[in-house]
């Protein structure tokens, strides 16, 4: 998941579709995010590369829509509904996730275990 | 320290007769150089050590001999009340005093006389230059104009300044007595003498013989002589006073008996002058030498040897066969001691812990006793003095009144810390009167007994200021160099001095623009969506 500035980022991603839960007036997704280009990347406990300023999932509430959809703690969110999440500020990321007129968010997330699984399956061949 | 002027260096005489036959330099420098007399230990005369002598090995052998022979005497002198017993130190000291006061006064007066004569000759030379033409050929002399008379005033004042300056630099009482001549003073005296002689030569040949009429020229000649003397005096100041002020060497001084160490920064000095500076600092920096504290380690060392019970009744220096046997025996002892399971470290640990506990207990009792004693005394105010003149005491009587209540605790504490021979009852009472007079608290009074102070704090008989010997492989008038080692030996301990050059410091500069101090926040926020 390390990136070289100026080069395209390649990653093995998983599509996750979360249906927002209506709780009164709010639409909640059931997880917390951290990171962003305006944040301090060295304090991120989930990233491999401590200069990675991407958006990471820091908490997943139990039984919430995110957990049901398959989101795990430590996932890095690459896209939300087609919007890029690798070079956004923390606030921009929050806005893209909490649009009031959308009921469903389709995320592309990546995690280390995905890459390992793909590599293992490739090695078997 | 050494304020009595009755001593001149015994080794001046020997140094003089040995090396230098220059008559002129005897004068000023001998008197003026700080004459530190060499002491004689009870076994040998050490004026200047020959270079081939090994420093420390020789001394340790001699030291052991002394210890073995006087073992009984020194121990009893230390542990008993030291009012009436004489230790070896006292005997040596008495014999020294008798010795030195007899033969050396005339040497010193000779030095003073010669230096005064040289000073007078130098001082009167310009005056002679000025007066002789008037005496010898007054009729042929051209009259002295205004400029010439102005020069008279300048000669007078310069001579006055020269007189004061020479007194300030050379004629003040010396602080210490050195074993060898002061090289710089000798050189300066030679220079001055040569200088004055050459001026006289020129004067005699060109002016007296030819009976020159130009008086103004003669006066200018005299003025030039005085100017040159002032410049030589300036050179003397630089050589004698200024050169050693800039620190150049760092000297590490260690006491051989208990390892107390100090460091001093000195400039470029000769070894003997450096020794004087170190000794002056020794009296204020080093805690007083307490031989009673060393008996513990000696008894431990004795126990190591006593374990295998080898008696060597005859001293060292017996015939070769016996020495050979003794050597092989000692080697066997060392080997056996190494193999034996030695528990002396255990004993040492517990002994020291026990001693520490005892000292603290006695100290607590002492502090309480003194505090209580001080509460019995109150300073009388002015009005009270006039009103009730009945029971008034001066400080001495007040001290004697409260002394008995703390005497026992103090005596016990001093015994436990083995300081009792350093303080006599008289000195304790004096110190108590002193503390009362100056409104000191009990803690301030006790401070001089709870901690061992520098040697100057104790009575003059502890100072032994006349018993120092300088032992050096290099010549003592040579300058300090990196790696010079010399010893300063007193009666029962010595100071080992090693020299190191102060490192050359290279400073680099880094400029920081004050506008470059900028900061930013590092956040890590977490938002739940």
Automatic annotation (TrEMBL), chain A:
Principal cellular location given in the protein's record: membrane
Keywords annotated in UniProt: Acetylation, Cell membrane, Cytoplasm, Membrane, Nucleus, Phosphoprotein, Wnt signaling pathway
Coiled coil regions, renumbered to chain: none
Role this protein plays: May regulate a number of protein-protein interactions by competing for PDZ domain binding sites.
Localisation per UniProt entry: Cell membrane; Cytoplasm; Nucleus
Membrane topology, record value: Peripheral membrane protein
Record InterPro entries: PDZ, PDZ_sf, Synaptic_Scaffolding_LAP-MAGUK, Tax1-binding_p3
Any one Gene Ontology cellular component term annotated for this protein: cell junction
PROSITE patterns (alphabetical): PDZ
Native organism taxonomy: Eukaryota, Metazoa, Chordata, Craniata, Vertebrata
Protein name: Tax1-binding protein 3
Domain PDZ intervals: 15-112
GO process annotations (BP): cell-cell adhesion; establishment or maintenance of epithelial cell apical/basal polarity; receptor clustering; receptor localization to synapse; regulation of signal transduction; Wnt signaling pathway
One Gene Ontology term of the molecular function aspect: protein kinase binding
Family matches, as Pfam families: PDZ
TrEMBL record, chain B:
Record's compositionally biased regions (Basic residues): 18-34
Family membership noted in the UniProt record: Belongs to the Vang family.
One Gene Ontology cellular component: plasma membrane
Protein source organism: Cyprinus carpio carpio
Principal subcellular localisation of the protein: membrane
Biased composition (Low complexity): 7-17
Bilayer disposition of the protein: Multi-pass membrane protein
Keywords assigned by UniProt, alphabetized: Cell membrane, Membrane, Transmembrane, Transmembrane helix
Domain of life, source organism: Eukaryota
UniProt protein name: Vang-like protein
Coiled-coil parts of chain: none
InterPro entries found in the cross-reference section: VANGL
Entry's transmembrane regions: 109-131, 151-170, 182-203, 218-240
Compositionally biased residues, Polar residues: 72-84
One Pfam family matching this protein: Strabismus
């Amino acid at each position: 998941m390390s990136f070289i500035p100026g080069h395209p980022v390649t990653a093995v991603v998983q599509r996750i579709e979360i249906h927002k839960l209506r709780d009164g007036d709010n639409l909640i997704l059931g997880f917390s995010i951290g990171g962003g280009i305006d944040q301090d990347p060295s304090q991120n406990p989930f990233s491999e590369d401590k200069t990675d300023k991407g958006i990471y999932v820091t908490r997943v509430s139990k039984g919430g829509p995110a957990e049901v959809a398959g989101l795990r703690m430590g996932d890095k969110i690459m896209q939300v509904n087609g919007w890029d999440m690798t070079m956004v500020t923390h606030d921009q990321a929050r806005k893209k996730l909490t649009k009031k007129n959308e009921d469903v968010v389709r995320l592309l997330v990546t995690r280390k275990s995905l890459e390992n699984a793909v590599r293992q399956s490739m090695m078997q061949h | 320290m050494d304020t009595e002027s009755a001593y001149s260096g015994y080794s001046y005489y020997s140094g003089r007769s040995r090396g230098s036959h220059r008559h002129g330099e005897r004068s000023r420098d001998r008197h003026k150089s700080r004459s530190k007399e060499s002491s004689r230990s009870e076994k040998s005369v050490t004026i200047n050590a020959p270079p081939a002598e090994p420093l420390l090995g020789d001394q340790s052998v001699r030291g052991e001999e002394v210890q073995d022979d006087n073992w009984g005497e020194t121990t009893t002198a230390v542990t008993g009340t030291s009012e009436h017993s004489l230790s070896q130190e006292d005997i040596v000291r008495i014999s020294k005093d008798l010795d030195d006061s007899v033969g050396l006064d005339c040497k010193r007066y000779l030095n003073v006389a010669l230096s005064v004569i040289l000073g007078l000759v130098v001082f009167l030379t310009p005056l002679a230059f000025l007066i002789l033409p008037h005496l010898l050929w007054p009729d042929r002399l051209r009259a002295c104009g205004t400029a010439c008379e102005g020069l008279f005033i300048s000669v007078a004042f310069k001579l006055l300044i020269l007189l004061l300056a020479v007194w300030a630099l050379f004629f003040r009482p010396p602080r210490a007595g050195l074993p060898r001549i002061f090289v710089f003073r000798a050189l300066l005296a030679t220079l001055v003498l040569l200088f004055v002689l050459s001026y006289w030569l020129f004067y005699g040949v060109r002016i007296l013989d030819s009976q020159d009429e130009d008086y103004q020229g003669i006066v200018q000649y005299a003025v030039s002589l005085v100017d040159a003397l002032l410049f030589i005096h300036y050179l003397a100041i630089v050589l004698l006073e200024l050169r050693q002020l800039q620190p150049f060497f760092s000297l590490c001084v260690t006491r051989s008996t208990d390892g107390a160490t100090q460091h001093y920064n000195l400039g470029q000095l000769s070894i003997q002058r450096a020794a004087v500076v170190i000794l002056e600092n020794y009296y204020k920096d080093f805690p007083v030498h307490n031989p009673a504290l060393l008996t513990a380690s000696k008894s431990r060392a004795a126990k190591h040897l006593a374990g295998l019970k080898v008696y060597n009744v005859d001293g060292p220096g017996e015939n070769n066969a016996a020495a050979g046997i003794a050597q092989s025996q000692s080697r066997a002892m060392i080997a056996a001691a190494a193999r034996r399971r030695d528990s002396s470290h255990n004993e040492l640990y517990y002994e020291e812990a026990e001693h520490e506990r005892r000292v603290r207990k006695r100290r607590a009792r002492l502090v309480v006793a003194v505090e209580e004693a001080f509460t019995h005394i109150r300073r009388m105010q002015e009005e009270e003095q006039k009103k009730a003149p009945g029971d008034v005491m001066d400080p001495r009587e007040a001290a004697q009144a409260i002394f008995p209540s703390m005497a026992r605790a103090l005596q016990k504490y001093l015994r436990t810390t083995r300081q009792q021979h350093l303080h006599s009852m008289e000195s304790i009472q004096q110190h108590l009167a002193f503390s009362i007079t100056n409104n000191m608290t009990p803690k301030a009074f006790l401070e001089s007994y709870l901690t061992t102070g520098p040697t100057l704090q104790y009575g003059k008989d502890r100072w032994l200021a006349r018993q120092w010997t300088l032992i050096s492989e290099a010549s003592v008038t040579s300058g300090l160099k990196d790696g010079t080692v010399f010893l300063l030996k007193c009666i029962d301990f010595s100071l080992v001095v090693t020299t190191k050059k102060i490192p050359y410091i290279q400073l680099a500069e880094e400029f920081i623009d004050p506008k470059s101090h900028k900061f930013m926040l590092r956040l890590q926020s977490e938002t739940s969506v």
